[in-house]
Write a structure and sequence with these properties.
The protein is mainly beta. It has one helix and eleven strands. The protein has two domains: 32 residues, Single Sheet (N-terminal domain of TfIIb); 54 residues, SH3 type barrels. It has a three-stranded antiparallel sheet. Keywords: Plasmid.
């Protein structure tokens, strides 16, 4: 078991800085949450050109996207503000102007530098 150190990330559940490592898992003594250090490294989501995306970023759609089960299309150049990153195939939850709430794949967006 590795002792609590400064270089371990805080708990993703409660933000406690008292995390410690047991084998391949990180553990939080305050809330009991356990997660893998590998998952921590893989959690980074990137756009189509490799920019790291964060919650709240603004992105632009780089390709016309047909909406499944509808005749609507999200047009290239559509700006989407305040994205939220989630786990899964469609890793961005957002509200698209004129269409509403939907999930996007990060490979079809580009981060807007503000």
């Amino acid at each position: 078991m590795r002792a609590m150190t400064e270089n371990l990330p805080p708990c993703p559940e409660c933000s406690s800085t008292y995390t410690y490592q047991v084998d391949a898992l990180l553990t939080c003594p305050e809330c009991g949450h356990e997660w893998s250090l590998q998952a921590e490294a893989e959690a980074e989501i990137r756009d189509s050109v490799g920019n790291v995306l964060r919650d709240g970023d603004t992105v632009t759609v780089i390709k016309d996207l047909k909406i499944k089960g509808s005749s609507s299309v999200v047009k290239v150049g559509t700006k989407v503000r305040g994205i939220r990153l989630v786990a899964g195939d469609h890793d961005i939850d957002c509200k698209i102007p004129g269409i509403g709430q939907m999930g996007l794949k990060s490979q079809f967006v580009k981060k807007v530098s503000e």
